[in-house]
Design a protein that fits this description.
A: formyl-coa transferase, domain 3, 2 domains, B: 438 residues, Rossmann fold, 3-stranded antiparallel β-sheet, 18 helices
Amino acid sequence: MEQVLSDIKVLDLTHYVAGPYCTRLLADYGAEVIKIEKPGEGDGARRMGPFLKDDPHPEKSGLFLHLNTNKKGVTLNLKTQAGVGIFKELVKDADIVVENFEPRVMSSLGLDYETLEKINPRLVMTSISNFGQTGPYRDYKATELTIFAMGTLMITEGEPDREPLKFPGYKAQYLAGTYGAAVTMGALFGSKFAGIGQHVDISILECMLRSGEGSGRLIGYAFGQDEGKRVGHRREGAYLSGVYPCKDGYVSLLSGGLPYWPRVVAWMGMPELLNDPRFADPKLRPLHHGDFDAIFIPWLMEQTVKEAFQSGQKHGIIIVPDYTIDQAVKDPQLNARGFFTEIEHPVVGKITHPGLPFTLPAVLAQPQRPAPLLGQHNQEVLVGRLGYTVDDLTRLRRQGAI
Amino acid sequence: MEHKRRREVVATGLPLEGIRVLDHGIILAGTGATTMLADMGAEVIRVESINVLPPFGTRGMTARPPKGVRTPGYVDNEPGDRPWDRCTSLHSLQRNKYGITLNLKDPRGQAIYKRIAMISDAVVDNYAPGTMDRMGIGYSALKEVNPGIIMVSASALGAEGPYKGYGGVGASVDAISGMMALRGYPGDDMLIRSTHVWPDNIAISTIPFALLVALYHRKKTGEGQFIDFSQSEAFLPHMGESIMDYTMNKRVPQAMGNRDSAMAPHGCYRCQGDDRWVTIAVSSDEQWQALCHAMGDPVWAKEENFNNSLSRWENQDELNKLIEEWTISRDAFEVMHLLQGVGIAAGPVARASEMYGDPHLKERGFFVEITHREAGTHLYPGWCFQFSKTPATVRIPPNCLGEHNEYILGEILGMSKEEIAPLEEDKVIGDAFLPEIR
C-alpha cells in the first residue's frame, strides 16, 4: 500500500547502529530499503545482544531486529566482481545509497561517490562515519565510548569524585542516524525536485558537537564562560528541581524557582509557606534548600508515584515519574497513542517493539514489517527485479558472490 | 488596497530552496530543528514578540540583566545594551533565519501573521500544547487561510492522550523513558540526573525529518497535516535494544556505567592534570597486544587473569586500575594519538576549550567565523553534515530581535513604509523588549 516514501528506493550498505537507524527511519515511512549484507556473517549487529532467551543466534538479536524493521534483505559480496556488478545495476534505479563503513572502504571497493554518480547522476549518497570522510582523524578507530567522550558532553556527567559517565547504550550513534535521515531527506529534495544529487558526509563526532549542549558549550567557551562541573546525584540550584522520593519510587520535578512557588505551595496545601521569608525572599531562598526538603520530602513520601504525578500535574507542576524500562513500556500515554507495536518474525515470533517516532495523520499507518532474515529477499530482488534466473542465483552463491 | 504578496522565496542554491517555514521554537527543540532546515536552504522566519519574553531562557532568563555586572550566558559575560541579541542561547543554535516580531494579541499582528502563513509551507512550534491555539494561530486557524499548511507541534509527552494538559520539558523525557534509571555506575543504585537535555537533540534532528516527510506527501497529494510530535515517542527508539530486552526476556537492564557487554578493557582512565581523562576501548586480541606493547609490556599484563578476552572482561575492575597507573602520568590527547597509532579506539573526555583547538576539526572546516552586529566576531560550531555539491554556509548570522521586520513586511508582504510606521509606534512590531518586560 502507498506510504509517503513508497516511490523512494534506498540501497542500504550500513551495519551496526548509526547507518541502520538512518535507513530504518526512511523505511518506517515507506521507502523501499534493500539492506545489503555480507553472505554468511551478515551485519555485525546480528552478533550483539540482547538475544531472545540469551540464545546468540544471528536471527535473534534484539538490537538487529529493532534497527532493521521494515527493510528487505539481500546478500552481496562486494569483494567479488559479480557482487559489485549487481550492486551497480541496483544503483541505476536507486534514489539513495547509505553506508557507514570506515572511510577508505567504499573507494577500496571501487564504489566511491564519483563512480556511482556516473551511473546515476541524481543519486544521493550518504556516508556516516565516526570522524568524517576527511581530516587527520579520518582513519582513527572509535566505539560509542570514544565519540561520546570527545563530544564535550561527557565531562559533566557522573559523580564529581569519580570517572565521568557515558550515556547508556548507543546514543551518539542513534543521534547520527537521525541527523542522517533528516539530511538525506533534505538532499533528496534537491535530487527529486532540482535534479541535483550529491554526497552527504556525516561525522558522528560533529553530530555530538552540533547538539544543543555541544554547541552551547562551544559557544559558551567562545563567549568566556566557565565550563561546567559534575554534580552527580546532588540536588543543586533552584527548587523544586531534581529527583525526589515517593512511597513506591521516584519522580523528577522540573519546577524550580520563585515563579513556580505559588503552585508548589498550592500543591502541598500549605498556604502558610507562600510568604515564608525563608522561601519567598529571593536572597534567602537559596540558603534554605535543606529546610524546604525537610518539609517537602516527608509530605511527598506519603504519596505513590502515580498519585504525586497526577496531583502535581493538576497543579501545573512539571513532574514526571522516574520509570524503569518495564514501567515505560506500560505507560498509559504511550499505549493510548499506539506507540508500541507487535511484529511477527519468522524466527523469534511475535515481539512487542517500540514503534514510529511520529505518526502522519494524513497517511494511513501500515503494519510494521519484521527485520529481514539474512538474504531473505535475494530471489525477489535479483530474480524478480534484475532478471537473474534461479540457476544464476545458485551459481552466484557457489561462487561466493551472494 | 491589494497588497503585493510575494510567494517566491530567495534562491539559496541549496536542496530546500523554495520552502518557507515559520519558526515558533523555544529553548532547544524547535529552534534547533528549524535551524537545520534553514542550513539546508529553507527560508525560515522566526516569529517572536517584543511583548513577551520567551520562556526558559530562549532570549535570556530576564529581559534586561544589568549592564556591567558579570552575567554568565552572555557574550563576555556582559549583557550589554541589547542582552537578548547577545545571549548564548541565541548564538549556540540559531542562524540563517529571518527574525520578525509581532504582537499577536493585536488584530493587526494576527492579520499580518496570517498573511505570511498563507504563503508559507510549514510551521514549527514546541510550546506547551494548546498555546498556538490560544494565540489564535493554531492548526485549525491556519488551515483556514492555507489548507495545505503543515504544522509540527512538539511537546514532551504529546498533546493528545490520557496526559492531555500535562506539562513536560526535555528533561522529563529522560525520566519517563527509563533512560535515567539506566544511568549510573555498575552496582550503584543512585539515580543521577543528566546535566544535559539529551531528548531535545533527538527532537532537533527528528522534527526536520518529520516536516520533510510531510512536505514530500504534500508535493504528491496537495494534502497538508498537523503532526502531534511527542518527544518521548521520538526518543524511545533510541533505547530500542533496552526495550527489546524487556519485551523479549522480561529483563530490566541495569546501569553499566562505562562498561561494554563484551569489550574489555573498555572504560575511562584518569590522566595527567586536573580532572583529565581518556577513554580506551579494546575489541580484539591484536588490539590488546598493541595496548600492552604501548604500555611498555608491563609484567602484570602477562597474568592469567588477563590472557584472553573473556578473563579480561571478568577481571576488568582490576585491569582498569592497572591501566590507570599508566595513563595517570600522561596527557589525555597524547594517549589518544599514541594508541590510535596502533589501531586502538582511544579518545579523551574532551572539553569545549580543547575541541576549539583540535586540528582535525580545523581541517574539516567545522568551525565558521561569524561577525554579529551585537556580539562581535567569534568562531562558531558549523555543521554536522557536508553536502558535496551545495555546501551549507552562514547566509544570515543569528537573528537580532525583529531584525527583519522591514524586509519581511516590506519585501515579502509588499507593505509600504507608511503602513509599517504605525505598527512600530503602536508596538505591534519592534526590535527591543518593552520596558515593562522583566
